[in-house]
Write a structure and sequence with these properties.
By secondary structure, this protein is α/β, with parallel strands linked by helices. It has two domains: 2-27 and 135-278, 3-Layer(aba) Sandwich (Rossmann fold); 31-132, Rossmann fold (3-Layer(aba) Sandwich), CATH 3.40.50.1100. The protein has eleven helices and ten strands. The strands form two sheets. The chain has a six-stranded mixed β-sheet. Strands 5-4-3-6 form a four-stranded parallel β-sheet, sandwiched between helices. The longest helix has 17 residues, at 135-151.
C-alpha cells in the first residue's frame, strides 16, 4: 500500500492510497494474480495439463496466463479476438508467445462462440474465461479487499478500480461495504458496465457507481492527453501506470477530484491492476529499483 502524493490530492485534503498489486509478481501481477489464484488451484487439483483462455490484442490476462503456465508447467492456449493480428502485433502478444502460449487469431464473429472455439482448440483444456472473470476470480479479489481493510486505519470511503470484463469490480463490491467507483476502459454505458459486473455476483455489499466518461475512445485507445498525464503523474508520484487500464482510472479520479466529487478528509483506495508489460513504447521505460 502506498500513499499517492499527487499535488491535487494534497491540495484538496484527500488521502489516496494505491494498492500496489503490480508489485506482486513481475508478470502475473495486479488483479490477474488475484483472479487466477483459485483457477490455477482448481486446474491443478483436477489434473489438467493445459489452460485455454480468451482475450483481445492488449489483454493483460493473456499475458498473465501465459506467464503462469510457464512458471507452473501448464501448456497454454490463447484465443485472440482479431484475425488481422499476429504474435508480433504488440508487446503483450509477443510476451505471451515468448512464454510458449499457442495463439490462435479469430474473427470477431467466431470469437463470440466460446464453446465452438473450445471444442476446436482445447477440448481437454481447463477453460478460464475472458479476463479470468468467474466465481473463482471473485473469491481471489475479495481476499485483496480484506487485506486492504487490515492495512489501513479508519474508514475507507471509496474503493476504485478499472474495468475490463467485470470480475475485479465484482470481487471488490462483494466484499467492500461502501462506495465502489468503477472506470471502464472500454466504450460502454454505465448500465452495460453494471450488468457486466453483476453477472459475477448475486448480491453486492457496497454501492456501485460506474464512471463511464474516461475511456478515451475505447479499449486500447489513447491520445496525447492520456500519455502526458501518465508522464506527469509518474514524475509527481513515482508510480508507473499503463495506458489501457490504470492510467484511465487515475485520470478519471483526478478529474473527479477537480470537480469537487470528494470532500476533504475522504480516504480513497485505488487498485493498481498491473499490466505494465503492455505499457506503450511512447512512454519512458520504467525505472526499477
Amino acid at each position: 500500500m502506498q500513499i499517492v502524493e499527487a499535488p491535487i490530492f494534497v491540495e484538496l485534503g484527500l488521502r489516496v492510497y494505491i494498492k500496489r498489486d503490480d508489485l506482486i509478481h513481475a508478470y502475473i501481477s495486479g488483479n490477474k494474480w488475484r483472479k487466477l489464484k483459485y483457477n490455477l488451484i482448481e486446474a491443478e487439483k483436477n489434473g489438467f495439463q493445459t489452460l485455454l483462455t480468451f482475450g483481445g490484442a492488449f489483454s493483460n490476462h493473456i499475458a498473465a496466463v501465459a506467464a503462469a503456465g510457464k512458471a507452473l508447467d501448464f501448456d497454454t492456449i490463447g484465443i485472440i479476438r482479431g484475425e488481422e493480428l499476429s504474435p508480433d502485433s504488440n508487446p503483450t502478444l509477443q510476451f505471451a508467445a515468448k512464454c510458449g502460449m499457442k495463439l490462435h487469431f479469430v474473427n470477431r464473429t467466431l470469437y463470440r462462440d466460446k464453446e465452438q472455439l473450445t471444442q476446436r482448440y482445447g477440448r481437454d483444456a481447463f477453460v478460464i474465461p475472458e479476463g479470468g472473470s468467474n466465481q473463482l476470480a471473485v473469491k481471489g479479489v475479495a481476499e485483496m479487499v480484506e487485506e486492504v481493510k487490515n492495512q489501513l486505519d479508519g474508514k475507507i470511503d471509496y474503493f476504485c478500480t478499472a474495468l475490463g470484463t467485470g470480475g475485479t469490480a465484482a470481487g471488490i463490491v462483494s466484499a467492500f461495504e461502501e462506495e465502489v467507483l468503477v472506470f471502464p476502459s472500454l466504450k460502454i454505458s454505465s448500465e452495460e458496465a453494471g450488468q457486466l459486473i453483476l453477472t459475477h455476483i448475486l448480491q453486492p455489499k457496497g454501492h456501485l457507481k460506474v464512471i463511464d466518461k474516461y475511456h478515451f475512445g475505447g479499449y486500447g485507445k489513447m491520445n496525447d492527453t492520456l500519455l502526458d498525464f501518465i508522464r506527469d503523474f509518474e514524475t509527481q508520484t513515482g508510480i508507473p501506470l499503463e495506458q489501457v487500464y490504470t492510467a484511465k482510472m487515475m485520470y478519471g479520479l483526478v478529474e473527479l477530484a477537480k470537480e469537487g466529487f470528494f470532500k476533504s478528509g475522504d480516504q480513497i483506495v485505488v487498485l493498481h491492476t498491473g499490466g505494465l508489460q503492455g505499457r506503450s513504447e511512447l512512454l519512458p521505460p520504467i525505472k526499477r529499483k
